[in-house]
Specification:
Layout (H helix, E strand, L loop, with lengths): L2 H15 L5 H15 L3 H9 L3 H12 L1 H8 L15 H4 L3 H9 L18 H10 L6 H10 L19 H17 L4 E6 L3 E2 L31 E9 L4 E7 L5 H19 L5 E6 L10 H14 L2 E6 L9 H13 L8 H9 L8 E7 L11 H5 L3 E3 L7 E4 L6
Parallel strand pairs: 1-5, 4-7, 5-6
Antiparallel strand pairs: 1-3, 2-3, 3-4, 6-9, 8-9
Helix pairs in contact: 1-3, 2-3, 2-4, 8-9, 11-12
């Protein structure tokens, strides 16, 4: 009988017996077949059954030591020996974990001695580097070791904003204390900012939405502004205490005048009803954009609003490069984006309706309106106008923290 016929014969027998075999009987049967074939039998049985040579040799040892095993264990029906199983790699190799961590530490990026300085840190390359260093491991073992060390596959996250201001943390603390103070006095505390401009029309919108299979919504190939439909500029006001949002959707330019006009609409449409007896309004804003702390027009228009409402307007700007810490970003805007994911914003009314129907399980309520006004750009505020602003600057970074008080109209 040829080797091929022998292998086929063993394979037929194994396929018939396999459903009735457990680990122990499978090893013993494979060992008996291998011994019956003589020299080369282990290889032929391994090819026929798919069992490893190690497993078959373990069965042969079982046959040789059957009487000793029964004596020592007192149970011939046991499938595995007591305490069987290989030792963990980290137990056999005391330096394995420390060497693995040294390879994946971020500091190795600038270490000229690191073997992985200019390569991706895949488990295959990590295993290869460990083996070069005298260890014996496989990519699968490296994967298991990394999980045991608390590592997981991670994508990049945008959190670094470049160089930070030395008083950044102190400004955060100042804003937090101010917010808690005004909330304890039942005074309104709002977070303001402009959301990303959105093109109106059948343009691609990021995200996915349930549709009929293989019937996605078709949109334009290129994202060029439609001169007839224009764009939407959502300026948001988020009330930190009542968990309510107000969005003024502009169609022209994102200017300081537009920003203050949005706050004015919020006050008369929503804020005044929630805080009928308030004497102050606290605003937290970014350092840049239409509500920049450097903008003279922003302060001049806030002066007009303070005089009109009779309220002291307290403004706290987040330090440069920390706009993501502004509450409106992750309390309002992210939910609006999630609500209209995968939907083309085909009209301004669609934008308004989607914003108004944005909710969360925490009870967020959002109102929106269309602002059809046109806002002129390039308005210059001269020194004489700036001097008329009743502004009181805080002793701690007065450029970021200030109060604009109403003026008595004669």
């Amino acid at each position: 009988m040829s080797d091929k016929q022998v292998v086929e014969s063993i394979q037929d027998k194994y396929d018939s017996l396999s459903p009735y075999l457990n680990e122990k009987t499978r090893r013993i049967w494979a060992a008996i077949e291998a011994r019956s074939l003589g020299w080369g039998g282990v290889s032929q049985v391994a090819i026929a059954t798919g069992l490893s040579r190690t497993t078959i040799h373990a069965g042969i040892r079982l046959l040789l030591d059957a009487s000793e095993e029964k004596t020592s264990n007192g149970d011939s029906n046991r499938i595995r020996l007591s305490g069987a199983g290989r030792k963990l790699l980290e137990e056999k190799d005391a330096m394995l974990l420390s060497d693995l961590e040294s390879l994946i530490e971020p500091v190795t990026l600038g270490d000229p001695e690191s073997p992985l300085k200019w390569t991706s840190k895949s488990v295959v390359k990590l295993a290869a580097a460990l083996n070069i260093g005298g260890h014996r491991t496989s990519p699968k073992s490296v994967y298991n070791l990394l999980e045991s060390l608390g590592y997981s596959l991670q994508s990049n996250r945008k959190t670094r904003d470049g160089s930070s201001h030395p008083d950044r943390d102190d400004q955060f603390l100042h804003i937090s204390n101010q917010v808690l103070h005004f909330q304890s006095q039942n005074e309104p505390v709002i977070s303001v900012d402009t959301k990303k401009k959105e093109l109106i029309g059948d343009f691609k919108n990021s995200g996915t939405e349930w549709c009929k299979k293989e019937q996605p919504i078709e949109v334009k190939m290129h994202d060029f502004v439609d001169p007839k439909l224009g764009k939407a500029i959502p300026y948001g006001i988020y009330d930190l205490t009542s968990n309510q949002g107000w969005v003024n959707v502009g169609i022209d330019h994102d200017t300081a005048e537009f920003a203050v006009e949005s706050i004015r609409h919020w006050w008369y449409s929503m804020g005044k009803q929630v805080y009928p007896t308030s004497q102050h309004i606290m605003i937290t804003a970014d350092c840049g954009g239409s509500n920049s702390y450097r903008s003279r027009l922003w302060k001049l228009k806030l002066q007009e609003l303070a005089t009109q409402t009779g309220k002291n307007i307290h403004v706290c700007h987040f330090p440069p490069g920390t706009s993501k810490w502004n509450k409106i970003e992750h309390r309002l805007f992210c939910h609006i984006t999630q609500n209209w994911r995968g939907r083309p914003l085909t009209s301004l009314q669609v934008v308004i309706n989607l914003i108004r129907n944005t909710t969360t399980t925490q009870g967020l309520e959002v109102e929106a309106r269309l602002d059809p006004n046109l806002y002129k750009t390039g308005i210059k505020v001269i020194d004489q106008e700036l001097d008329t602003i009743a502004i009181e600057r805080n002793s701690f970074h007065g450029e970021w923290n200030y109060i604009i008080k109403p003026k008595v109209v004669t």
